[in-house]
Amino acid sequence: MQIETERLILRKHSTEDYERFWNMITDPISKRFTGGVTTLTYAQRLKIFCEDININFPGNNVEFAVVEKSSMLYIGYCGFRECEYLDGIELFYGYCRDSWGNGFGYEAAASTVAYYFNNTEHNSLVAACNMENLASVNILKRLGFKFVKQVIINGMTVDKYELYKS
């Protein structure tokens, strides 16, 4: 399964993605709003990463690797998954800092949302966002998500948003 946009390829992760993925999840600036830097070692996280790439996407849990077409460089991830904290299927994403500010987050999220509504029977999608993460708030609002309420996830207060299939 693969999605192509004008500038991006969204596909399953591969082992070649791991170095940039690792650099992203250990970058305190990249992970400031998404739960913080991993506490796992390189080898521990690599083992999980390799296990995950060998599993077929289950219906409500899809995580795409986001790759910039022009460079074929891994720039992050975008997907959806069941989330008990938000009581629904959650849109989620994260990007390497060197890809920020280019509109890739919105482009990948818009394609993922369209894929979700066209390929599942669900009529709604939720998202969580730290209110200080203005870039992410803007992505969600541009996609049509509406603020619902604040929730606490792992001790962190975040805004919950919802989007309904139109």
Strand-helix topology:
Elements: E1 3-4, E2 8-11, H1 18-25, H2 42-53, E3 62-68, E4 73-83, E5 88-95, H3 104-119, E6 124-129, H4 134-143, E7 146-153, E8 156-164
Antiparallel strand pairs: 1-2, 2-3, 3-4, 4-5, 6-8, 7-8
Helix pairs in contact: 3-4
Tell me what the structure shows.
This protein is α+β, with helices and mostly antiparallel strands. The chain has one domain: Gcn5-related N-acetyltransferase (GNAT) (Aminopeptidase, 3-Layer(aba) Sandwich). It has helices at 18-25, 42-53, 104-119, 134-143; strands spanning 3-4, 8-11, 62-68, 73-83, 88-95, 124-129, 146-153, 156-164. Strands 1-2-3-4-5 form a five-stranded antiparallel β-sheet, with helices on both faces. A three-stranded antiparallel β-sheet has the order 6-8-7, covered by helices on one side. 28% of the residues are buried.
Radius of gyration: 15 Å
CATH-wise, what's the superfamily? Gcn5-related N-acetyltransferase (GNAT)
Strand content: 25-35%
**Largest sheet features:** 5 strands, antiparallel
Mean pLDDT: 92
List segments where confidence is low: pLDDT < 50 over at least 5 consecutive residues: none
Total number of distinct structural domains:
1
The CATH architecture comes to 3-Layer(aba) Sandwich
The main sheet orders its strands as: 1-2-3-4-5
* Overall helicity: 25-40%
Topology-level CATH name = Aminopeptidase
Please give the oligomerization state of what you see. single chain
How widely separated are the two ends?
24 Å
Briefly, what CATH class? Alpha Beta
**What structural category arises from helix and sheet content?**
alpha+beta
The counted number of beta strands is 8
Order of helices and strands: EEHHEEEHEHEE
What characteristic shape results from the CA principal axes?
globular
